[in-house]
Design brief:
The protein is mostly helical. It has one domain. 53% of the residues lie in helices and 10% in strands. A three-stranded antiparallel sheet has the order 1-2-3, with helices on one face. α3 packs antiparallel against α4. The longest helix has 27 residues. It is elongated. It starts with 9 loop residues before the first helix and ends with a strand.
């Protein structure tokens, strides 16, 4: 008895073609970008600079590592699930839907960072809390909170701003 095995490579070739259409690395950046600045009354200071001072601390302010510990930890714990979703979308949908999924991830992480800023534990010095009228260590004018943004990059080129 002789048996024959026939290979159908159409599915494999379709998959390779689909993967080739996704030819450049995509990345999602979430944070504070160059266009985010405080007003002229604060010398148009970059929001990213203020965020860094808050995150790492200064000679007069304690560190509040909302980015390097809290946000980075949240991203790390959720990354595998989101990467899996993008991969499944890449295999089962079209490139437009893949890009939409990546954009959606940026929006999710924007909201996550905003929640971290709003809910950050701790307090200000009593005199500063009295000056502000409330005691929230990462909020004053809410410029930093309102400046949280995301962008999707294809290679080194920005293709979508959140």
């Amino acid at each position: 008895m002789t048996g024959r095995l026939k290979s159908n490579r159409k599915g494999w070739n379709d998959l390779k073609r689909k993967l080739k259409t996704f030819d450049y690395e995509r990345s999602v950046d979430v944070g504070f970008f160059a266009n985010a600045q405080y007003g002229p009354d604060n010398d148009n200071l970059q929001v990213a600079q203020v965020a860094a001072w808050n995150d790492y601390g200064t000679s007069t302010n304690p560190p509040r590592p909302f980015m390097t510990i809290d946000f980075a930890g949240a991203v790390k714990s959720e990354f595998k699930d989101y990467a899996r979703r993008v991969f499944v979308t890449l295999l089962t949908r079209n490139i437009t839907q893949v890009n939409q999924e990546i954009e959606h991830i940026g929006i999710i992480f924007e909201e996550e960072l905003k929640d971290i800023i709003v809910q950050y534990p701790g307090s200000n010095a009593s005199w500063w809390a009295a000056e502000k009228g409330f005691n929230d260590p990462l909020r004053h004018t809410d410029t930093m909170l309102e400046s949280v943004s995301s962008r999707v990059k294809k290679g080194s080129r920005v293709i979508k701003k959140g």
